[in-house]
Every structure is written in structure tokens, then in C-alpha cells.
Specification:
globular; zinc ion binding; Nucleotidyltransferase, domain 5; zinc; REXO1/3/4-like; seven-stranded mixed beta sheet; alpha/beta; 14 helices; RNaseH_sf
Length: 356
């Protein structure tokens, strides 16, 4: 229904973020209490509707049943990859030159593991550095259902290979999955022992800091990017602080639904514009794909807040039951103003990068 013909009472009970309407104000308050709407949600650049994920925003703009008014403008001024709106078709064309990426080709080995004691970034970046990790697995176990890490790769923000190696598994390999991994028995016979891989990768990531003291700001430890990193780290027998991990399989704006992940192949095609996993899979390709996705999400421009998370001390009582009467007297816009995000938005890493 056109907003010009909606009653004042209907507008008062309409969520200022997702535009959902409620019969009673206390229902809207409860909705705001559990929805965690914030400035960090993917938002339509035309009608300003907040969506829980990029997939929801895509459906809103170019799905089978899009919002007609938004779809009409988006078809002329919108980027199908990042879903942003631009002032003119010309500015859109300029943007697409950088948003549409091509398949990665290794730029060469800039460092071997023996040299990973170097703590300074060669490009002079301050604050925590970011690296991407990916592994390729072969099968172990009597039925071949057990994943064994057989190849590992680390890259930096500039897509340079920091380290790559075959990994000698501790258990017997029952299937090398050659059709997708390209790995043969002779590759693993000369592979690095997994304990050595663990030690060297952790030493590089922690960068001289004990794991239990790693800080999210002003520390030397590196931010770790990947897809399904919990699985890769488990197969490597490693642990790393959760607040230093950026996982494209768990980041809410990149999820298919609130609990279901998209594949890395789909995310790369949808948001970077090229295909991966079309033949034998290289962990370098996965590292580059996750790093590019991370950087795209980190570059999203959102209003800055002193306390952006709902768990931050000053925000914990924003929608407390004791404030029910006060909240019901607020306008939907006022409630949205005090609502905060329930996940860490990667755009906040820009603040970390700027910290001395």
C-alpha cells in the first residue's frame, strides 16, 4: 500500500527498518527487541528497506518477485554484484570496472615459511594485517568419510602467496580425490609434517603474541580470513581466537538463510563475478576468493557508532522490559536509532587498520 494512504496509526506501528507492520505498538517493540536492526544491515539504496542478508536484498531488487519501483531503478543504476545504486549509468559503468573481478593467477611466492619471522608489513600497513587460509582435503578412514588436510595455502591482502605446501597426513589416505584436488601419492610423501605446518602457521598468525593475550586492537596478531575455517583449523589441529577470524561461511550478510551457508563457489560468482572450482581446485584460488569477499564486505560504508554492538555495555538495556512504557511512546525511527547489531560488521575492521 502507498504510504500516502496509510493511516497514522498504521505508520506508527510500522518498523522503520524492514517495513513490517503490526497491529499494536507493543508488538513492534517486541519485534525491535529480537530483530537487531541496525545501520550495518544490507539496505536497499532506493527505498531504504533493511534486509537481514545480501541474498534477501538481492531478492528485493532482482528476485522473481522484486519490489517493482526499486527493480525499475536498479535495472538502470544498480550493480548486480555489490547491489549498490549509483547516480547515473555512467558512474555505474565506472564502478563495474573494479567490482567485476577475474579469476586469480598466483603472483609468485613472496616468502617461504623459514622467513615468516618478519613482523613488518612490506607495504607499510599499520594495525592488524589480514591473511587468508585455505586447505584441500583427501579422504581417510575405512569408508573414506574422514577429511585429512593434504594441501594448505596462505595469502596476503594483495593476493601474494605467503606459504603453500603439501601436508603429510598422519593417517592412511584411502582416496586422494584426484579429480578435484589433483593430488597424487608422491605429492604427500614429500609433504611437510602436519605438526610442523601447525607450528609455522600459528607462529606467523600470532606474530609473537601468546594466543591467550591476543587483542583485537593494537596487537600484532593477524586477522584470519577463510571459508568454513572451523573445519580447516580442526583438520590442521589448530585453534585461533574467534574474534580474529572472518569466516565467509558464517558472516550473516553472506548467509543463504539465518542458519544456512552459501558455498564459496556461489559467493564468488554472485559477488565477485567469476567462477571457481571448474576443474582441479587450488587452495590459492579459495584464499583469493575469500580475501576478495572479505575486502568487499569491509569496504561497505556504514555510519560510525561509538558502541555498534548490542552486547556493548551502553546498549544492553536499550530494549529492556523495564523500559516497555518508554519504548511504546517512541516513534519507529527513534527505536531504530537505538537498535544495534547482533554481529560484528567487517566494516569495523577499518578502525582496527587505522589504530597505531
Amino acid at each position: 500500500m502507498d504510504g500516502r494512504f496509510e493511516s497514522s496509526e498504521t505508520l506508527r506501528n510500522k518498523c522503520a527498518a524492514c517495513f513490517r507492520q503490526f497491529n499494536r505498538m507493543d508488538h513492534l517493540v517486541e519485534h525491535m527487541r529480537i530483530s537487531y536492526h541496525s545501520v550495518h544491515e544490507p539496505t536497499c539504496g532506493i527505498c531504504r528497506k533493511h534486509c537481514r542478508s545480501m541474498e534477501s536484498l538481492r531478492e528485493h531488487l532482482i528476485g522473481p518477485l522484486p519490489k517493482v519501483e526499486c527493480a525499475s531503478i536498479f535495472s538502470v543504476q544498480g550493480c548486480n554484484l555489490c547491489l549498490n545504486i549509483f547516480e547515473s549509468p555512467y558512474s555505474l559503468r565506472l564502478h563495474q570496472g573494479g567490482c567485476q573481478l577475474s579469476r586469480a593467477i598466483p603472483a609468485g611466492l613472496i616468502s617461504r615459511m623459514s622467513n615468516l619471522g618478519i613482523q613488518d608489513d612490506p607495504n607499510g600497513r599499520s594495525g592488524p594485517q589480514v591473511v587468508a587460509l585455505a586447505c584441500k582435503m583427501v579422504s581417510g578412514g575405512s569408508d573414506g568419510s574422514f577429511d585429512l588436510c593434504a594441501r594448505v595455502c596462505l595469502v596476503d591482502e594483495d593476493e601474494n602467496i605467503i606459504f603453500q605446501s603439501y601436508v603429510r597426513p598422519q593417517n592412511r589416505v584411502t582416496n586422494y580425490r584426484y579429480e578435484t584436488t589433483g593430488i597424487r601419492p608422491e605429492n604427500l610423501r614429500d609433504g611437510m609434517p602436519i605438526k610442523k605446518v601447525q607450528s609455522k602457521i600459528l607462529d606467523f598468525l600470532c606474530n609473537g603474541e601468546p594466543q591467550w593475550t591476543i587483542q583485537s586492537r593494537r596487537g600484532r596478531a593477524k586477522i584470519l580470513v577463510g571459508h568454513r575455517l572451523d573445519h580447516d583449523l580442526e583438520r590442521l589441529g589448530m585453534e585461533y581466537p574467534a574474534h580474529m577470524i572472518r569466516d565467509t561461511a558464517k558472516y550473516p550478510p553472506l548467509l543463504k538463510t539465518s542458519k544456512l551457508s552459501n558455498s564459496l563457489k556461489y559467493l564468488t560468482q554472485a559477488y565477485c563475478g567469476y567462477d571457481i572450482h571448474t576443474g582441479i581446485q587450488d587452495p590459492y584460488e579459495d584464499c583469493v576468493a575469500t580475501m576478495r569477499l572479505y575486502l568487499k564486505m569491509r569496504r561497505e560504508v556504514h555510519p560510525m557508532e561509538d558502541y555498534p554492538l548490542t552486547t556493548d555495555g551502553p546498549n544492553r538495556n536499550n530494549f529492556a522490559a523495564s523500559r516497555q512504557n518508554e519504548l511504546e511512546r517512541m516513534t519507529p525511527e527513534e527505536m531504530l536509532e537505538i537498535s544495534r547489531c547482533d554481529y560484528y560488521c567487517w566494516c569495523l575492521d577499518y578502525g582496527r587498520m587505522a589504530d597505531p
